[in-house]
Amino acid sequence: MKIRSDILRTYQSVHTWTGITAGLLLFIGFFAGALTMFGSAIDDWATPPDYQLQQVPIGQHDVLLRQVFAAYPDTVDNVTVSFDEHSSPVYWYDSGSARGFSLDDQMMHATLDAQGKLVSELRHVNELSMLIDYLHRSAGIIGEIGHDQAGVYVLGIAAFLYFIALVSGLIFLLPSLVKSFFALRKEKGANRFWLDSHNLVGIASLPFHIIIAVTVVVFSFHDLFYGGLSQVYGDKPLFGGDEHHQEVRYEVSALPNLNDIRKRVEDYAPGYEITSINLRGLTSEHPSASVAVLSEASFMRGPHSDFLFMNPFTLEVDTSSVINGNGQQGVWGSVVKTFFGLHFGSYGGEIGRWLYFIMGLGGAFLFYSGNLIWLEKRRKKQQVTQSKSSNFMASLTVGVCLGSAIGIAGTFAASKWLTLTALNINIAYMWVYYSLFFAAIIGAFTLGAARFSLVGLLSFSLLCLIVPLTSLCGLLLPNMGIWVPSSTADLGVEAGALCFAIAGLVAAKRVKHRVYHGEVNSIWYCQKLTSSKASSAHLA
């Protein structure tokens, strides 16, 4: 395919600057986003085994729920019944809520003892997976605009630039795409190898990246989009359902059995598994039941489930994210559900999650390698002396990228140890992450990009290695209070941490070679770490 050289240069320039502008924020979003694919496993791993109370047999949830209403009258406003064997059968927020990332949420858990009497306990909510999701959605940018984090809007702008970078990169690669797609030319130097790897990952996962870019823009600015659509739809609901209901106050005693609610849901959404029922405003004029249903063979609105909203007294379904062919969801509801499902990867089961995890890490590599390629290109133009802007960008790239990875690894490494203290674990998570993140940035500018890239990778590996070593301590010293993995999901988190540690050590070995034996005028060369003899040899 023949394209004029001046057009290619223009698209290459657009690709470079949009990628450089948005790349560091998107690295954090993609690295954390890859981990969110296993958010439930992370929560299970970070939560002590005795945190959840014993599940009750099907049929006993009604008995438990009635006792909860009698002992805690305020629960008629908001209470959740769970059928998950790894969850407490009934729970509700004593402070805080399930929306967003909160540092001081407290939850009451309830179950029945052997005599059928109510047992309840107050626990802090471990928000480790929510912290990871917060970083994924906002890149850790602190502050709020309206009802959402400021970082969500900033990341939305970055995703728009990212989409432009994808399109422009594809265009200027078209002439050489066929002959160089699978080429990884190590013999032509490190820069060519990085460029080939960057292009391969980018083109191979292009559909995934386009999906993520578009959906992030939609999620970030959905209020504006909905506002625009409301000008067309007027008072008609965008997502189906009928908002005009007769206002009737009900008594809790008239609440149907949970089995009746379950049967209504099963009739409405056959093939879906009911995981929980959240009951709200039971004595208000607008009582509701939000039923979480799971089908990994189809798109889901949430990261882990679909939702069905109904009146718990009349069993009338108001609206649902389940596509069941009755048209109740509405056209825009189907469109929005598709956007959510494509972004969350909430389809395809475990295989789908692993693919999104791998492609998420590939996306983080794409942004990091893009900055390295740009810095190398600048180095070749400058030949001998590196400009202050190049050194600044190198330190910023290493500091932000490794800093976010180190911060996340640090929260995992500290998690089980923090449970031994009286600290609010969620506030402690924030201190650990941001302390390590900003320490990494300061270290990168103080030590320089070359030296800190080595120090940072070793630090990351050490923190990842602490995760399985902590469990080993718990196994060898059971009285410490540290628990050991008790499920496949728990073992998966520990194995993942070990793999990250090994990958960090392998990368550190390669970086060390470049720091000691790289080209003298390279940003990644550190003269102080080499002998004067080696320096003379390089200069010669």
Automatic annotation (TrEMBL):
Record keywords: Membrane, Transmembrane, Transmembrane helix
Chaperone recorded as keyword: no
Domain of life of the source: Bacteria
UniProt name for this protein: Peptidase
Pfam families: PepSY_TM
PANTHER family noted in UniProt: IRON-REGULATED INNER MEMBRANE PROTEIN, IRON-REGULATED INNER MEMBRANE PROTEIN-RELATED
Membrane-spanning segments: 20-42, 152-178, 199-221, 354-375, 396-415, 427-447, 454-477, 489-508
